[in-house]
Design brief:
With 101 residues, the protein is mainly α. It has four helices and no strands.
Amino acid sequence: MRYRLTFVAGVVLGYVLGTRAGRERYEQLKKSAQQLAQNPAVRNTAETAAHQGREFAGKAYHAVSDKVGDRMPDSVAQRVRTLRERTTHGSAEDDWGTSNT
């Protein structure tokens, strides 16, 4: 599914960038893309994919941290502790001001 979406996105992008149909066709494609992005099924799928990505990242983090253990430099360990505390205490924003939702 991911490869199909990537392919379709590439085709659409190539068409938009390479077309000579003019501004009207561009606006039509833009409107269609916005409607697609606002479709509840698409949004739910994207949210599910993001949630699964966070779960896999968490599992990978635990697997790596179990193997690395105390061999991690203090500066990195402190940064990880800070990030854990930040997410534990309800602040879901990262250093760039974006949320992890």
